[in-house]
Amino acid sequence: xxxxxxxxxxxxxxxxxxxxxxxxxxxxxxxxxxxxxxxxxxxxxxxxxxxxxxxxxxxxxxxxxxxxxxxxxxxxxxxxxxxxxxxxxxxxxxxxxxxxxxxxxxxxxxxxxxxxxxxxxxxxxxxxxxxxxxxxxxxxxxxxxxxxxxxxxxxxxxxxxxxxxxxxxxxxxxxxxxxxxxxxxxxxxxxxxxxxxxxxxxxxxxxxxxxxxxxxxxxxxxxxxxxxxxxxxxxxxxxxxxxxxxxxxxxxxxxxxxxxxxxxxxxxxxxxxxxxxxxxxxxxxxxxxxxxxxxxxxxxxxxxxxxxxxxxxxxxxxxxxxxxxxxxxxxxxxxxxxxxxxxxxxxxxxxxxxxxxxxxxxxxxxxxxxxxxxxxxxxxxxxxxxxxxxxxxxxxxxxxxxxxxxxxxxxxxxxxxxxxxxxxxxxxxxxxxxxxxxxxxxxxxxxxxxxxxxxxxxxxxxxxxxxxxxxxxxxxxxxxxxxxxxxxxxxxxxxxxxxxxxxxxxxxxxxxxxxxxxxxxxxxxxxxxxxxxxxxxxxxxxxxxxxxxxxxxxxxxxxxxxxxxxxxxxxxxxxxxxxxxxxxxxxxxxxxxxxxxxxxxxxxxxxxxxxxxxxxxxxxxxxxxxxxxxxxxxxxxxxxxxxxxxxxxxxxxxxxxxxxxxxxxxxxxxxxxxxxxxxxxxxxxxxxxxxxxxxxxxxxxxxxxxxxxxxxxxxxxxxxxxxxxxxxxxxxxxxxxxxxxxxxxxxxxxxxxxxxxxxxxx
Length: 762
Description:
- By secondary structure, the protein is mostly helical.
- Helices cover 63% and strands 6% of the residues.
- The protein has three domains: 9-40 and 194-354 and 367-409 and 598-761, Up-down Bundle (Multidrug efflux transporter AcrB transmembrane fold); 73-187, 2-Layer Sandwich (Alpha-Beta Plaits), CATH 3.30.70; 435-593, no CATH class.
């Protein structure tokens, strides 16, 4: 007695999806609309400290200094006053003094400004002793050598203590600066960090909309049917809204690292939707719509699942990172990849079968030309395998040499377009006033100051000025690697006479200095914790290696001057270990200098874990270790190409490109799986090796070309960003996709043809 074969679970699921397609489509769209307000609540973690691992020594030094001396987030508001000083005098003119006082009072009213710590020239020259000496001390901080440029130095409250957001504080300061006559310039590390996040957030939204529109236009030109444009665009929009809403509901926040989330989800969504759409079009030329869709979903269910799974795993290994934003980015991308799979599953049947279904036309002239080119590539690989192999090795070797010249970009001004307000302000301040980078070197100090110790501090400050102070005019190359200002406690003490009616003790002079300048002593010396510091200013706009060398030299001189351990047993409030007793250089200037190094610390570990994991998954998916190993070639090639090219052309590693190896690995693996699956289907039909490769190139290869061309066009919009790392990211991701395309259309068939062809000959 015969009975019908029981349908497989996959067949049952596919049939159910097609049967309930309208309910699924309507539910998905209603859910998306409902989640839009939720997704818009996703915000940025706008803290530079968050980009460091909690145990990173530079971060620990920074946090320890903050607890010891208070927050040091300084903002300089600089302007030009032609009639600043009275003739042949160190006194300000009455008009300049009144104008400066009034402007400082306005700035002090800004919420988030620590008004009691504001410093300006009029206030400094109220000092009752040695006005000419005071003027000399503040040159390079409050007044320029041209005796016209002056600055008001604002100290910002810690963000947790501020009544408003840091963005609102800086925005109000800039507004007052723009209204000043003449307009003032605003600089400082907090301003640069704010602008970095602002540009990423603003440009991210604007450029995403623009790139999606351009992507849709290119898809329309390539596919010439609105249906095949709407599906991938809808998949991307739905995936992003659902993903962002999930993050909001789970309490996750975006960081600088995860700012590329939307762009990467766009790539995954478009790749997945395009492969299914193009395969359906081929099936629909000979089958009715529903049967063509059913066949497409059955054939592509496995490769689509494995492509999304390997992508999710590739990003998921980033959870091994010690840096929270990098680890959370890995979690976010893994979740986002799986959300794309869900979105494609529920949207695909309804979108494909929506409305009247016209017969698919035969391949267009463009399709035939692309197929012809791909056919010639297959023939070339088939007939000249050794040439292709050695040419490929040559390209990889040539690109690999570029690794030797990779450099890290820590000149933070290079992250912004030259016409941006922050770069213009930095250029003005550093050419007229001095370095805009604020930092410090702190070292052990006794609980009670002695004349001998103060003399050591004085000599240390003088040594920094003589060995690392400015040589030549401001704004010239001679300022690179130099300190524009060194401020020590001894500078203030030297203003207090050692003898009035009688000889004053050091303790009395310190008390007098503190009563005249309240913040001066407390901001430089903490007797309870046994630390003292020198405040330093250096140039932001200088090469990274120069900046790092200066930091190391200053710390080395401090260690030579203060080699002893701290005299006090003190402990950090949130860690059961003593404060560093040795001298340390720290501050936002230092954190920014080591930022990329922090982001790159464990990227190679994550990359190797990703490579091993993806290879293992490919082995399991295709039940073949050789296939798993062969899939490495097209995925490693774009990494070598992109990173090597960065070295060859001198493109520095910055915030957005620090993880390009892991990102490109996660993006190119999808195409490899789709190609290998297509090849195995052709082999299952009984075709010989090279016949199967020809057919795979004709169908899957054309889909890969169309998908990558559309995505590269969409990502070209990132070149318009105000934030240079986003420009680099767009260009390098496009290059990685091009490299992955070459790898999957040249290296992969070369290896498959060699391995399977060898067995076929036997």
